[in-house]
Design a protein that fits this description.
The protein is of the alpha+beta class and about 160 residues long. Helix content is about 25%, strand content about 30%.
Length: about 160
């Protein structure tokens, strides 16, 4: 079991380093293109993005069907409660979340947290505002498949 835990930690660390290098290179390339103008994330094809189950095992992931940041809609991001989203257990109203993409840095202010049924997809409904919704399993220290979802809702700030 210790070997498996070590494997998971090393695998995650390697994946994150590779993805960070790839992000930095893409950011550098996009700044060089078209006289310093950034290229659109929407030009990426699905083959350029890692498959979701692999991503969630090692990082957080964008929820398909929700827009990318910068649009006046609800951006959805999910992650496992026992890895990257563990700190969400301490998040409070008015905390600031910074999301960095190839298009820029987006800041959001937490407006609410709540616990919902796992089938409550209404938390991802569009509202016409720039919203960030973070989704993870709940309770945070539950052993096994968690019965609920913890939702963080944040609005974009200047």
């Amino acid at each position: 079991m210790l070997a498996y835990c070590a494997f998971v930690l090393v695998d995650t660390w390697i994946f994150q380093k590779q993805q960070y290098r790839q992000f930095e290179q893409s950011l550098h390339d996009s700044q060089k293109a078209i006289g310093g103008a950034r290229q659109s994330l929407y030009s990426l094809s699905p083959k350029d993005l890692p498959p979701s189950p692999t991503t969630l095992r090692r990082a957080v992931g964008h929820i398909s069907g929700t827009p990318m940041p910068g649009k006046p809609e609800n951006v959805g991001i999910s992650g496992h409660r026992d890895t990257f989203f563990r700190p969400l257990r301490n998040i409070r109203q008015n905390d600031i979340i910074t999301l960095t993409t190839l298009l820029g840095e987006y800041r959001y202010r937490v407006v609410s947290t709540r616990i919902v049924d796992p089938y409550d997809v209404a938390v991802l409904n569009q509202s016409g505002d720039e919203i960030l919704t973070l989704v993870t399993c709940y309770p945070f220290y539950f052993v096994g498949s968690a019965p609920n979802r913890f939702i963080v809702r944040a609005e974009r700030v200047g």
